[in-house]
Amino acid sequence: MVVDLLNHRRAQPIAFEFAGHIPDGHRPALVVKATAEGADHAARMIASWPAHLMRPALIIVADAPFPMPRLARFRLRAVSGETAITVRVPYLFALRQLDRAAALRAGGRVTRTARTLQRALLLKGPDS
User: Fold this and answer.
1) Does residue 66 sit in helix, strand or coil?
2) How far apart are CA 37 and CA 35, in angstroms?
3) Residue 50 and residue 56 in contact, taking contact as beta carbons nearer than 8 Å
4) What's the rounded Cα separation, in Å, for the pair 56 and 45?
5) Hey, is 10 helix, strand or coil?
6) Which of 42, 19, 46, 15 has the alpha carbon at shortest distance from 31?
7) Which helix (H) or strand (E) holds 33?
8) Rounded distance, CA 77 to CA 58, Å?
9) What is the DSSP string of 82-126?
10) What is the pTM of this model?
């Protein structure tokens, strides 16, 4: 769904699912849930990140309309310095209730979140 948000209402796609290699000019992104388990996965992936690749963007997706658990906040704060940028995606009810196509047509908060995510990642381009 994050790929859909990044490409939302764009003439040319800017995000792709991982397919074994990272296309030139694209920054890798690590997408995790805002849970202790998601934070643990992020920490392990970032710790073993290959040195020849650009540092990834870390995208943290809220999985509930509640504050992030304390352990998740602690772990993600600890690894965020090792990423190019850290972006949080809020809990969006439309994304859980609807299928992908319907959720992206929902507009409102989904569109605002998509634009915020696009701006954050495009401002911190691959050369940064």
Assistant:
1) coil
2) 5
3) no
4) 10
5) coil
6) 42
7) strand 29-33
8) 11
9) TSSEEEEE---HHHHHS-HHHHHHS-THHHHHHHHHHHHHHHS-T
10) 0.75
Ranking 44-48, 65-69, 75-79, 90-94 by mean pLDDT, the lowest is: 90-94
**What does the block give as tokens for 38?**
């998601």
- Compute, in degrees rounded to 10, the torsion defined by CA atoms 123, 39, 83, 68: 40
Cross-strand bridge partners of residue 29:
57
Question: 122 Cβ partners below 8 Å, 6+ apart?
Answer: 14
Looking at the predicted structure, is the pLDDT value of residue 13 above 70?
no
| Residue 15 in tokens | 């995000």
Q: Residue 90 and residue 25: Cα distance in Å, rounded?
A: 27
Q: What's 128's DSSP letter?
A: -
